[in-house]
## 1
Amino acid sequence: MGGFTEAVQERVRAARAALAAALEADDAYQVAVAHDELDDAVRIARAHGVDDDPGSEVGAGDGTGADGGTVTSTSER
C-alpha cells in the first residue's frame, strides 16, 4: 500500500474518531466540524479509488451509523 493511500485512510479513520468523540460529548459545534472533515476525507478517498473503511463505527458522511441508525447532531435531536 502506498503512502498516499495510507495517509488518506488514516485521515478517514481520524475523522470518524473525531465525529464519534464529538457525538459522545454532545457538542453540536464539534459534530458539525468533524462531519465536514469526514465528508471531505471520504470524498478524497473515493475520488482516488481508496477504500474508505466502510466497516467503521460512523458512516462515511452519509448520515448513518454502522448499524444503519441515523447520526444526528445535538441541534437536530
## 2
Amino acid sequence: MPPINLAIVGVGKIARDQHLPSIAGNPDLQLVAAASRNGAVEGIPNFLTIEAMLDAVPFIDAVSLCMPPQFRYDAAYKAICAGKHVFLEKPPGATLSEVADLEALAIENGVSLFASWHSRYAAAVEAAKSFLASTNIQSVHVVWKEDVRHWHPNQDWIWQAGGLGVFDPGINALSIITHILPTSIFLRNATLEFPENRHAPIAADLNFTNSDNISVHAEFDWRQIGEQTWDIIAETSAGKMVLAEGGSKLTIDHTVVPVSSETEYAALYRQFARLIKNGESDVDLAPLRHVADSFMLGKRVFVAAFHD
C-alpha cells in the first residue's frame, strides 16, 4: 500500500518539535504540503491557509491540525468536507459541541477522525493501566505543575477564552487518568485560580470520586519554579504506584518497571495510520468533559496579575 499523503496545518513549536520528526520516521506517511500563517516546512509546498492548500494539492489524503484549539473546528470542518482524514492535536477543540459535530461529520463523509491525547501514549502508561486493573485502588493523587513561562512563552492564546489556561497541560493528566483507571470518575468540587488580568486559570485543585467512592485528587499549577512535576501516585493493596515524568516512568512498591522505548508522537502517528487503513475513528472526549465540568462546578478565586 502506498504511503498516506499527509498535510500539516499550523507550523509552530509543537509541530517542529514533535509532529514533523514523527511523520518523517513513519513509512506509512508522506508529508506533501503545509499551511501556516507564521511558519513553513522546507522541501514541500507551503500555503497561508488550509483552503489554498486543499485547492492546490488535491491528492492530500489526510490533514494534521496543530493550531490553537479556538481555530481548529473551522479547519477540521473544511478538511472533512473535502474528504480528508483528520488528526486533531490536543485538546481536540475549544468545546465539546464542536468535536461532537466533527465526529458526526466524519462519519457522514466516510473519513477517519483522531482526537489525539499524546500523554496516553507515554512509555509507562499501558503498564500502569494493567497494574491498576489487577489490584484494589485506595486513592489517587495527581500533581501536575510546570512553569508556563518556560513551556508557553508569549503565547497569549492560552490565556484567552478557549485556551484553557492551566488545563492545557492539566488535560494531559486527565487523559492519562481516564485511560488507566478501571472505572469512571466524577468531579465533586474544584477551585480554579484566575489571575486578575487573565481569562483562563493559572491553577486548579480538583476532587473526583468514582462509583466506589475512591478519592482522586488533582493539583494543577502553572507557577512551578525549578524542577517540573508530572506525577500520578496511586495507593493500592499491592503497594504504591508512581507514574512519573508525564507517564514515562513507573515504579510499583519501589520497584522500577521496564517500559516501551517508543516516543509519544511516533505512537500517535502509528495509530493515525492504522485508523485510516482500517476505516476507523478514535474520538474520546472524557478528558475534555472533565475540563468542562471543572469550569461548571469550580469555585473561582482571583489572584494577583500574571505577567510573562
## 3
Amino acid sequence: MDFLPIFLNIKDKACLVVGGGEVATRKVMLLLQAGAQVSVVAPELDSALNKYVASNKIRHNAECFQSGHLHNIVLVIAATNDRTINQQVSEAARQREIPVNVVDSPELCTFIMPSIVDRSPLIIAVSSGGRSPVLARLLRAQLETIIPVAYARIATIAGKFRQHVKQHFTHSEKRRVFWEKILQGPFTEMVLAGKDKTAQDYLLQCLQQAKDEPLQGEVYLVGAGPGNPDLLTFRAMRLMQQADVVVYDRLVSAAILDMVRRDATRIYAGKERNCHTLEQESINQLLVRLAKEGKRVLRLKGGDPFIFGRGGEEIETLAVHHIPFQVVPGITAASGVAAYSGIPLTHRDYAQSCIFVTGHLKNNTIDLDWQHLARPNQTIVIYMGLLGLPVLCQQLIVHGLPSSTPTAIIQQGTTQKQKIVTGTLQTLPNLAAAANLTPPTLIIVGEVVKLHKKLAWFEPES
C-alpha cells in the first residue's frame, strides 16, 4: 500500500486550509463535518467561505501563507492554484511532522483525501492513492447505491449494545461470533424495514439467551479457484471473512490470500515436489486440533478441493473426530484455465468426452491407464505435469495417439501471468522447455486445442 488507510479524530482540533477558492471551500466543509476548528489562510475568500467567517464557523487570516501559521495546527490542507505556495505549505508541514494534503499533488502529500460514503457513524473511504480520483469517485457512487442509508442506524444501535455484549462474553472471539450472527440475521432486516424498536428488542433477547460457553470449532473446506480472485464464489468470500485460522496451499494466489480476514492466523501447508511443508496426515490432524480449540478453520485450496486436492481425505478425518465441516466447491483449474485459454474442453466437432489426470513423475515414470487415455475424440487434461511432460507425450504416442495431436501447456492460467505454449505431442516438450515455464501449469491434449487461436479472448498485460 502506498498510503495507510486510517481515520483521524480531529474533533475540536485546530486544522488549517490554505486557499480561498471553490476547492478550499469543499475541504473546509469536510473538516467542519468532522468537528474540527478550522482556520483559513488566503488573501481573499470566495462568497461561500465569507459566509462561514460571518457565522463564526471558521477563522480567516487575510494574508499569504507563512510557516508561523502552522503553530498548534494538527492537520493542514493546501488548496491553492499556485504550485509554489502549495509546495511551501507541504515543506513547512513536513518539517514540523504535521500531516499535510496538497490537492491534486499526491507527491506533496503525507495523507490523501478519499472519496467518502457517509453513513455516520459508519464511514467508508475509497482511494486510488492519488492516481485516479475519478475512479475512486465512481466506486464511491456504486457503493452509495448498494449500501442503504439505514446502515447508519444499524451502526448506531450496535454501538448502544457494544458494552453490554462486552460484559456478557468473556472472550473477544465469542463477541465477534455473536455480532456476526446478529448483523447477518433478522436484526439487520428489521432495521432496513424501519422497525428499529423491534430490532433492539430482538438484539436484547438474543443477548439474554446467548450462553457464554466455549465456541464450537468448525472447518470450512473452500476451493479458491485457479488463481484469479474474480472467480471466487460468494460463499467462499463470506467464509474467508469469518475464519479465525486459514490453512492454505501453495496454489492459493497472494491476491486471494489478501482477501482473507486480516486478523486471521495464517498457516502455510503448501506442497512442492520433494518439499512438503506439512505431510498430509499432519495437515489432517492440524485441522482437528484447531477445530477442537474452538477455531473456525478455513482450509483454503487452489482450484476445487475434491479434484486432486485431497479434500476427501481431510474431511474423512474430520468426520471420524466428529468435527463439523462444510465444503465450498471452487472452479477447478481444468475448466478455469481452459476457458481463459480459449480452449473448450468438449466440442461436438472435436471431442465428446474429457478426462482429468495427474502427471506426477515417480521414479521417472507415470503410472496411468494409457490405453484408456489414448482414445480419439477425447480431451485429456493433465494436472501437475510440467516435469513429466516428455514422458507424458511419449507414452500417449506409444499407446496410439498421433504424434501430430494438438497439445497445449498453460502457466498460471486465469491470472495476469498466464502464458500459453501450443504445439503437438511431438513438439510440445521442447517448446515448453524453451519457454522456461514454471509451475503451476496445466496440459491439454486433444483436437480442441486447434480452437485456441480462434477463440482466445483473455490477453494478460505484457
